[in-house]
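pasting for the record
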Amino acid sequence: MFNRVGVFYNELKTHVTPLVQEAITFLHQKNVMASLLTTLDNLDNFDLIISMGGDGTMLRCARACAPKNIPVFGINCGTLGFLAAAEKEEMPSALQTLLDDKCTVRNRLMLQANIRQNGQVQTFTALNDCVLHASNMRAFFVNGTFDQVPMPPYFGDGLIIATPTGSTAYSLAAGGPIVEPNVDVFVATPVCPHSLHQRPMVLSAKGKLILKPAFKNADDSAIASFDGQVHIPLSHGAELEISQAPFSAKLLTLPQRGFFTVLHKKLSWGQP
């Protein structure tokens, strides 16, 4: 049983507000201490976060909750809702299943990236992916090593480093493989490679990947984006070190909502 529950949503999505109030009212009627959250800055007093929104809201919750070992239960109020535990139409029954302790915990691998530039190190995490792309629409090189072994350079519009969870997001749209979530790997997927022989590659998440963007023109630069929500400009000579994060995202889901069921329903996988 959860003692203190936070219900988080994007307050700019005003159409979600009535659903959030309905969820909080339901939890209060069940004698659960539930609070409305519009920020994820202070989660120390919570043992569960309910995410009400789309996949973007779930990604924000995962990055904030994973380091604190707080599980996330997602109710899809957005468009796709690939990461959610239930749809908004299922909310009362889904919340009751949650309170009855009948949900399944899915531990999802996260990546950690250390950006070294200008004599400083910044650390970021992502549940879906880290994407290297140019500040302007221009192809560039990405030089890399994996466990200190040099890799052939990529040349194109960018490079996606996706987790198994992120393999069904941007990486899939760019031609990458679908990875079952329990496999501890990263997928390196080139974005519009200027070559016919560059293909996605699957790498062990136990290794360390170091990437360095390189441009032909001194005025060009790159950006590292995390889950499509955090964007960090990279100076010339910047180095990006990617490895498995020391914690995982704990996503709660309904027993009947398995990975292959969601693939079939959300992405039409296996449709004739």
